[in-house]
Design a protein that fits this description.
Helices cover 59% and strands 4% of the residues. By secondary structure, it is mainly alpha-helical.
Amino acid sequence: MKAIEHGSGFLINRKGKFIEPTVYARRYKAILKEIGVRDVKFHTTRHTFATRALEIGMDIKTLSEILGHASPTVTLNIYAHSLPEHKAKEMDRLGKMYNPS
């Protein structure tokens, strides 16, 4: 079933019917199983996306708009999680500022 975008912001199928969220959930679970990844909630991908986007330097305003949040504060408070390796990298950067070698 190939989806087409409808002007309302919802996805509809070729017959003009809205695609139910359960369709996405089933397909997501099937893809995870197919590629050998443990079953994780789909919403987890949103958290991962937000965190990784910030780690590569995406500005918070842009990310917030992509995620559809009312403000960047929502994005930072709910979806952006700093990973240990990113924290270590940033601390190294700060250390080099004070002790360049």
